[in-house]
Known about the structure:
- By secondary structure, the protein is mostly helical.
- It has helices spanning 2-25, 30-38, 40-45, 47-59, 63-76, 81-96, 108-117, 127-146, 149-164.
- Helices cover 78% and strands 0% of the residues.
- The N and C termini lie far apart (55 Å).
Amino acid sequence: NEDRERAWRASRETKLETIPNCEACTRPTPEEVRGWAQSFDKLMKSPAGRNVFREFLRTEYSEENMLFWLACEELKTECNKHTIDEKAKMIYEDYISILSPKEVSLDSRVREVINRKMQEPSSHTFDDAQLQIYTLMHRDSYPRFLNSAIYKSLLQSLSRSSSES
Length: 165
């Protein structure tokens, strides 16, 4: 069982590492990148936007927020009870446990709800926590992202290359 857990964790980490690179294969248009400044939802619905935002979060040492959010999104697509149990346990260990180096910042009420729900995990066990982290990224990191060199240089390079063609 521990071997299967390790293998799943390794494949998940690999998937999380490679997904953003694949997402970046589709180069966003200047209009799409400008749209990210109009709303956080547009940014988060865009695979390329999530990738660029994740790179920004990495510079702020808060990439775990995006990784947690992505893991919750992946959990919501699961139907198999056994897989849900395993993935929920991994998410808990990776992002909720106070012993985790990737622990996300949650209030005590949400932690209590998760602890109760972990008795019988479902694909929606972390919904409250996911919303709290989404809101944190929206209010805290997103405004800084829009003013960051990462975002501004991407916008500038795309605008330059589209005006050249």
